[in-house]
Design brief:
- There is one protein chain.
- The protein is an alpha/beta fold.
- Helix content is about 30%, strand content about 25%.
- The strands form four sheets. Strands 3, 5, 6, 9, 10, 17 and 18 form a seven-stranded mixed β-sheet that branches. The chain has a six-stranded parallel β-sheet with strand order 13-12-11-14-15-16, with helices on both faces.
- It starts with a strand and ends with a strand.
- The chain contains twelve helices and 18 strands.
């Protein structure tokens, strides 16, 4: 089957013809129909994550189950499934205590070396999935069977980006009706934060992004105002739009320390700051101690939007089916697997909102 491999930093992704990995007793073979290209994949490809190269990128996809291992119980052959950026076994301490986004299978799933490359080396798959391929072999804890008429290319986005952003607003921050919200970074995840804030009933939603296209797209999914950070101090602009106090809820969705600081400064006293973006492994965040304490602001990291996939995938699908979550407008480019380097280039240039591999 065709498989995309990231061999070295700075080297274009290569499409290899590799044998389908043999499924283990808890594994599922999924023939992929659509895969989103997420910024996390770009972070991995650029060598800024803890995951070593070579690796098979992609972790946001959907498809149909073709084969199951002898001990698989969650899905059956023929099921339409959605892949998840993180597994949820349903049995470990984290899963039982409502934190399946921290499932104890995580490390095992992500370090599994599933692929044998032509040069003799082995390779893992990003998040244990590897959706930049014609098929994937994945642990059953990383897939959820779904029943919906949503198109594959829309459904795939729920595997990571949409769930991360929507969950950050609804689960982690718990945005309240009538509140004010500022979102720094309005790509796929940021657009999903905006949609989550809109669904939650926020009255003022400020989209902060240097790209005009993304600011415009934000208005279409619920933002009430936009801020161009290149047109002046973004903190001052957000404060001006929120009565001079700052926003009730702020979100950093890029993963850069200086933008985290901006998100904190944009929040009002006792405001809620949610960190969604994935930073580099070498990044360090430094904050002034006394103002951080006495402002009373709450700062929280959001891992996959605090999502519990067995609960939230069906819940978010219902929102999309009801027309309250707009997935179609987020897809700005569609490419084939053979065009993968074009898709990565679009993401590197921050063009559009989400590129999806289809077919």
């Amino acid at each position: 089957m065709k498989v995309v491999v990231a061999y070295e930093v700075g080297r274009p992704l290569e499409i290899e013809d590799l044998p389908l990995p043999a499924p283990g007793p808890h594994d599922v073979v999924v023939r992929l129909s659509a895969s989103g290209i997420c910024h996390t994949d770009l972070t991995v490809i650029n060598g800024l994550s803890p995951l070593p190269l070579p690796i098979v990128p992609g972790h946001e996809g959907c498809g149909v189950v073709e084969e199951v291992g002898a001990e698989v119980r969650r899905v059956r052959v023929g099921d339409r499934v959605l892949a998840s950026v993180t597994p949820a076994c349903g049995r470990c301490w984290s899963c039982v205590n409502g934190m399946s986004n921290h499932c104890e299978l995580n490390a095992e799933v992500k370090r599994r070396q599933r692929f044998r490359l032509a040069d003799g080396r082995s390779a893992a798959a990003v998040c244990g999935c590897g959706t930049f391929a014609e098929a994937m072999v994945v642990h059953e804890a990383s897939v959820v069977a779904v029943q919906t008429d949503l198109a594959d290319e829309q459904l795939a986005l729920l595997g990571c980006g949409v769930t991360t952003g929507l969950g950050a607003a609804l689960n982690t921050a718990a945005v309240t009706p009538g509140s004010s919200v500022a979102v720094i970074g309005c790509g796929g995840v940021g657009q999903s934060v905006i949609q989550g804030a809109h669904i939650a009933g926020a009255a003022t939603i400020v989209a902060v992004d240097p790209m005009p296209g993304r600011r415009e797209a934000s208005i279409g999914v619920g933002a009430t105002h936009t801020v161009d950070p290149q047109a002046g101090d973004p903190v001052a602009q957000v404060r001006e739009l929120t009565g001079g106090r700052g926003a009730d809820f702020t979100f950093e969705v890029v993963g850069r320390p200086e933008l985290v600081t901006q998100a904190i400064d944009m929040a009002r006293v006792e405001g809620v700051v949610t960190l969604v973006g994935m930073p580099s492994t070498t990044d360090v965040l430094t904050l002034p101690a006394i103002s951080t304490v006495f402002s009373g602001k709450r700062i929280a990291g959001s891992v996959v939007g605090g999502a519990q996939i067995l609960r939230d995938f069906p819940r978010f699908i219902r929102l999309a089916e009801a027309g309250r979550l707009d997935l179609e407008s987020m897809i700005t480019h569609r490419i084939s697997l053979d065009e993968i380097n074009k898709g990565v280039d679009l993401l590197s240039r921050a063009e559009g909102v989400r590129t999806v591999i289809v077919g």
